[in-house]
Amino acid sequence: FGNKAYIYLSVSLIQMLKAFTPVITMCLLFITQQSQPTYQLVGAILLLSFGTAITSTGVSSEDANFTGFLLAACAQITEALKLTLQQKLLQGFKVKMTGSRKDIDTLDKSITILRNIGSSGDEIEYEKKIKFTTFEGLYYYAPMTFLSICIIVVPLELGDFWDNYDTNKAIFTSYFWIFLLAGLL
């Protein structure tokens, strides 16, 4: 969605529309109950978006196009949805487990003991809240992201890639260091 909007809209209008991504993200976080609205949070996000929108003034009516606006709006919504779902993944989820009472740290706040199993009381069923850091989360959602991109790219882009293979190879070999540097950034 995002790059196709540049065909229909001016850069300043696209930047103005992108300024509202934090507003959409904030609304999705409130809807999914991952964050609670406060006056300070809402005010800060709206002030940030308003300030960015003001800096993108000068958009004429010729720059605006409904198709481009629709593409840009879809790009912002999908970006906000991606951020919200990643936050939900990283925030943690509960896993039910069983184990020996002596092997479990009962002072750990992420563990909730559910019930005893067996007659001796040594075996218990418990819930443990799992939380990921940003890099740990990458191990889980990066492969699915790669698979999703492949599902989209193969039918839409692969034919064009093979038709222009020699040109693509020449561009890549000529500007290898630039591609490498861009990939590292």
Oligomer: single chain
Report the major sheet: 3 strands, antiparallel
Strand order of the largest sheet: 1-3-2
What sort of overall outline do the alpha carbons produce when their principal axes are compared?
flat
Tell me, rounded to a whole number, the average pLDDT: 81
Number of strands: 3
Distance between the termini: 23 Å
In which range does the helix fraction lie?
A: 55-70%
Low-pLDDT windows of residues = none
Number of DSSP helical runs? 8
Based on secondary structure, the structural category is alpha+beta
Order of helices and strands: HHHHHEEEHHH
Per DSSP, what share of the residues sits in E-state strands of 2 or more residues?
5-15%
Cα gyration radius (Å): 24 Å
Task: Explain what the structure shows.
There is one protein chain. By secondary structure, this protein is an alpha+beta fold. Helices cover 62% and strands 12% of the residues. A three-stranded antiparallel β-sheet has the order 1-3-2. Strand 2 (111-117) and strand 3 (123-130) form a beta hairpin. Helix 3 runs antiparallel to helix 4 (39-55) and helix 3 crosses helix 5 (66-91). The protein is flat, with a radius of gyration of 24 Å. The two termini are 23 Å apart. The mean pLDDT is 81.
